[in-house]
Amino acid sequence: MKVSARNQIPGRIFKINEGAVNAIVEIKVSEDIIISSTISMESIKELNLKVGSRAYAVIKSTSVMIGIE
């Protein structure tokens, strides 16, 4: 796999919460860190994503915001 994004974090799919159109996919990248992403159900099927499968969280962003209460 070659993509321009440099933030590619390997892990395993921990959970998939399917909806009618989209799903929330959780990737466990370390013992205490899980990254989640909302993707289409079409992408879930095309990539054949299953709980336990290896996957990458690929992060490409022009800004990351941090806030406090």
Write a structural description.
- With 69 residues, this protein is mainly beta.
- It has a domain at 10-52: RNA polymerase II/Efflux pump adaptor protein, barrel-sandwich hybrid domain (OB fold (Dihydrolipoamide Acetyltransferase, E2P)), CATH 2.40.50.100.
- The protein contains one helix and four strands.
- It has a four-stranded antiparallel beta sheet with strand order 3-2-1-4.
- Strand 1 and strand 2 (22-30) form a beta hairpin.
- The longest helix has 7 residues, at 41-47.
- The mean pLDDT is 92.
Brief write-up:
This protein has 69 residues and is mostly beta strands. It has one helix at 41-47; strands spanning 7-18, 22-30, 33-40, 54-59.
Question: What's the tally of helices?
Answer: 1
- CATH hierarchy: architecture of the domain at 10-52: Beta Barrel
Order of helices and strands: EEEHE
Q: Specify the CATH class of the domain at 10-52.
A: Mainly Beta
Total DSSP E strands: 4
Helical percent range?
Answer: 10-25%
Low-pLDDT runs of 5+ residues are none
Distance between the termini: 39 Å
> Pairing-aware structural class of the strands and helices?
mainly beta
* CATH-defined superfamily of the domain at 10-52: RNA polymerase II/Efflux pump adaptor protein, barrel-sandwich hybrid domain
Largest sheet features: 4 strands, antiparallel
Strand arrangement within the widest β-sheet reads 3-2-1-4
**Structural shape:** globular
What value does the Rg take, in angstroms? 13 Å
Strand residues, percent: over 45%
InterPro entries: Mo/tungstate-bd_C_term_dom (IPR008995), Mop_domain (IPR004606), Transp-assoc_OB_typ1 (IPR005116)
GO biological process, one term: molybdate ion transport
Domain Mop: 2-68
Protein name: Molybdenum-pterin binding domain
